[in-house]
Design goal:
Elements (H helix, E strand, L loop, with lengths): L1 H33 L4 H68 L26 H39 L5 H13 L8 H11 L5 H12 L5 H6 L6 E2 L5 E2 L11 E3 L4 H14 L4 H12 L6 H5 L10 H14 L8
Antiparallel strand pairs: 1-3, 2-3
């Protein structure tokens, strides 16, 4: 009984739920069949499609018409870039030509000829006849200073050539025949004929071709010539105690030993004497320390002073450091009489 009742109940539930299922299926079927899509919606879609198509066609037509303009614009931009590049190239080439011409102007011996000073070949003044010590010092310094400045100007022009050659060689390690000839002349003057390479030669010339401070030259001249009163200064323009080793090249000193051959050099004029003194410090192996001191000052962009370079005169006198101390003392005491700022 229990099972039949359950089955009857199940059948009843099945009957009750069946119309619902049929109703749902019938509802779906009826909707599909009895509710067709409205025609106006389809027409609206077609109209929108036509409108969009028209816009696309219109856009395509606009692009098609605008294409030649865009090509012309691109060509103009490209031509502008080409013109700018050509102008910059020409400007660079002109600048290079100008730089080369300027370098050629510097690397030339034509501007090395600084006119000699007229007084340099005249008789040396009789400084011993000046009784007032201060006046004697002032006149002595005033006599030497113009020629010292002239000789330093020549050295600075030579230095410009060396620096220009170094700069050029660092960019293009080839020298023209003209520039090589100038370099060889400077190498010979500064006794650098045996350097193993052009680079080494230029490096050493940069150390050698440089000025000597006027204050140092003035006090050494005063010290070596007894303020211009020695016979070597009066008769041979030798204010610096310079020796020579060829017979007849100068004066035989009274205190020279019998086995010695040196003489105190005799110069043609004051210009010859100052030039030889500066060249001697700049190229003789005995003054390598002086040149090292000067090169270090240059490297540090500091002024080249008489006091600094005096420390490199160890070999100038057999008195050594005592001589250096005396020179430093003379610089300190006599600078006020030199008129260096005039």
């Amino acid at each position: 009984m229990h099972d039949d009742h359950k089955h009857s109940k199940h059948k009843a539930e099945h009957k009750q739920s069946k119309p619902k299922v049929e109703h749902k299926a019938g509802h779906k079927h009826t909707k599909h069949k009895t509710e067709p899509k409205p025609k106006h919606k389809h027409n609206k879609h077609k109209a929108e499609h036509k409108q969009n198509k028209s816009k696309v066609e219109q856009k395509a037509g606009y692009k098609s018409k605008d294409k030649p303009k865009r090509i012309r614009f691109s060509l103009l931009v490209l031509l502008g870039f080409i013109a700018a590049f050509v102008l910059l190239t020409l400007k660079f080439e002109q600048s290079t030509i100008d730089d080369d011409e300027q370098t050629d102007d510097i690397i030339s011996l034509e501007h090395m000829d600084i006119p000699p000073l007229e007084y340099a070949s005249k008789v040396v003044p009789s400084f011993g006849e000046i009784a007032d010590i201060t006046e004697k010092k002032k006149k002595f310094f005033a006599y030497l200073l113009p020629e010292i400045r002239r000789q330093n100007s020549i050295v600075l022009r030579e230095r410009e050539i060396v620096l220009a050659l170094s700069s050029q060689y660092s960019q293009t390690p080839v020298l023209t025949p003209k520039h090589r000839d100038i370099l060889d002349r400077l190498a010979k003057k500064y006794q650098l004929v045996d350097e193993e390479s052009t680079h080494a030669l230029l490096r050493e010339l940069t150390r050698r071709v440089d000025i000597i401070p006027p204050a140092l030259i003035l006090v050494q001249a005063a010290n070596e010539s007894a303020w211009g009163t020695s016979r070597f200064a009066q008769d041979g323009y030798n204010f610096f105690g310079l020796w020579c080793f060829r017979k007849g090249c100068g004066f035989v000193p009274n205190e020279r030993n019998d086995d010695e051959v040196h003489e105190v050099a005799k110069f043609r004029n004051l210009s010859h004497a100052v030039n030889t003194y500066i060249r001697n410090l700049n190229r003789h192996y005995a003054y390598a320390d002086l040149r090292d001191i000067r090169a270090n000052l240059r490297a540090k962009n500091r002024p080249i002073t008489a006091e600094a370079l005096a420390q490199g005169l160890q070999s100038y006198s057999i008195r050594g450091q005592e001589y250096i101390d005396e020179i430093l003392s003379m610089i300190r005491v006599n600078r006020k009489h030199m008129n260096l700022n005039a």
